[in-house]
Amino acid sequence: MAQAVGNPLRWLQAAGAKRKQLPEQKAELMSELIDQSELQSRAARLVEAARKAGADACDAVAVTGVSLGVDVREGKVEETERAEGDDVTLRVFVGKRTAAVSANRLDDPAGLAERAVAMAKVAPEDPYAGLADPELLVKDFPVLDLLDTKEMTAEDLSEIALEAEAAGLAVEGVSKSGGAGASWRLGGVVLATSHGFQGSYISSRYGMSMTAVAGDGTAMERDYDFDSRTYFEDLESPAEIGRRAGERAVRRLNPQKLSTRTTNVIYESRAARSILGHLAGAINGASIARKTSFLKDRMGERIFAPGIQVIDDPFKRRGAATRPFDGEGTKADVLDVISDGVLRHWFLDGATARELGLKPNGRAHRGGSGTSPGATNITLMPGDKSLEELMAEAGEGLLVTDLIGHGVNGLTGDYSRGAAGFWFEQGKIVKPVSEITIAGNLNDMFRRLVPGSDLDNRYSTAAPSIMIEGMALAGN
């Protein structure tokens, strides 16, 4: 079964009060507390109230969470922020008319439901509105590794951030800190529908970052490093994060400009995720239905080179976007979005699937008054060449480490981004460069894309370094 959710705030308070218990006692305590049913009760009461108020169908989402973050600079804590929140959203359907209302308290479920039904009755009809097909609902919940029970205090987070900052400042050439931070978040979600679905899960997230500044005056350069994980034990060490941030900043000192040319471009893994993000946007069912995607007519065609594979996996172990069900309670499968270079799937929720005459594939994301389709844990699978081997193969070109702006036309695929990084020759970095624009068209870029072997698998959008030959570079 999915991990049942009670009230995470109550769980934190109770677990914190008994931190000194033996490990086996603490595990038993947490099992008992996580089994609480407050969130489920909220959602169920809203669904019942909406049906009594005249809704033909409805669903309710109840969420609760707590987060704690600490920012430090120059060896001192600058800010400590704790946030706690509860929210419920009720969506009702009256025929093909729909409306949604939200509240952070549930003092009057009947009143909230009556307001939602009244709003729906005067809303315009939406021919694609409705709950998920009952046959598509999740019935057997997968066991997912989403919850780390390690508690963090402000003191714990301060120590992590201060250690990362100290490591960055210790790098030769770093002149000052741009700040460091550490965070912890715990959140729970419940979805209940009028046609019998109820599911819940609780997840944790830990993170840290450090920004280093190198040089002085107008010659200063800055860079950063960060990490974010579901389980604390998976985080890289603060010292490693700080050291890499410092080294990255120092490497950027005294950047030069380049003349306009056509050249090979290699995106390091951190920058390569943006290319995968553009693909995810182009195969979003909403863009396909609106006909605003340059890939709208390319289903079943080879859009990448043979051998390229992109996978979207909602069940990735400890993944940033892992979940037992989507925003409609629909079951999902691992999708081979790109198989051997061929486009195989759109991301679909119920509404976009009905509009396109297709079957939903469990990619509904909840937000505002309804759902929208999107990726979960999307990964460009790695190739067999390291970053160094890609550079050696390319000979000379631009290694992109940072991108600026959002110059992508989703309708045509035209691509233009500001960039900074390093110029390499004979496979070796020779100088840092900046104030560059790289341009092309995503259709052509996808066809020429060569993935490296250095997959960074930590994030919901994961990619290795990638090489794209023959891109336009605009310099001075």
From TrEMBL:
Listed GO MF terms: metallopeptidase activity
GO CC, alphabetical: cytosol
GO BP terms in the entry: proteolysis
InterPro entries with a match to the protein in the record: Metalloprtase-TldD/E_C (IPR045569), Metalloprtase-TldD/E_cen_dom (IPR045570), Metalloprtase-TldD/E_N (IPR002510), PmbA (IPR047657), TldD/PmbA_N (IPR035068), TldD/PmbA_sf (IPR036059)
UniProt domain Metalloprotease TldD/E N-terminal: residue ranges: 58-120
SUPFAM superfamilies linked: Putative modulator of DNA gyrase, PmbA/TldD
Sequence ranges assigned to domain Metalloprotease TldD/E central in this UniProt record: 150-253
The Metalloprotease TldD/E C-terminal domain, residue ranges: 261-475
One Pfam family, short name: PmbA_TldD_3rd
PANTHER family xrefs: METALLOPROTEASE PMBA (PTHR43421)
Similarity section: Belongs to the peptidase U62 family.
Name this polypeptide is given: PmbA protein
Organism: Roseibium marinum
